Amino acid sequence: MRGGARPGGGAGLWAGDSKAKGLDLEEVEHFKMRKIDLCLSSEGAEVILATSSDEEHPPENMIDGNPETFWTTTGMFPQEFIVCFHKPVEIERLIIHSHFVRTLRIEKGMSEEPVDFEQWIEKDLVHTEGQLQNEEITAHDGRATYLRFIITSAFDHFASVYSISAEGRAVSSLS
Predict the structure, then answer these.
(1) pTM reported for the whole predicted model
(2) Among 17, 60, 113, 173, which lies 20 to 30 A Cα-Cα from 131?
(3) Is residue 31 scored above 50 in pLDDT?
């Protein structure tokens, strides 16, 4: 094939294009496999449910990329929120910045709708007086379209989540 012809026609990047664009095959594969923060609203993530909402600290603050904003619970536990990726993803690592969260359960859903969640991770967090909790979790079997975060207990009457970060990549299917 010559002149940028693609197998089966069509547009898009394929290995034959790498030399024409000055990329080697390894750079092309790296681009296709790049890991991003899947939980950012700028990457298409959305908080589709939260059990409490304060107009000054809405749930969207957890995924806005701003370390100064946060979502706060309004008391009583459990409290939960669901993050939708709008596409299948493979999560390799989670980072949660929070305050006063004692026990956190994370469930994942792989269907097209936010139903049929399965328990994935449960962590007891350490109380950090006067500073944010910074919980890093290496994820195994992290394919999902939705994540449900359930704060089952807290160290105070209220808890807050400053950010949820999911390092990973979009995948072509859930099979």
Answers:
(1) 0.79
(2) 60
(3) no
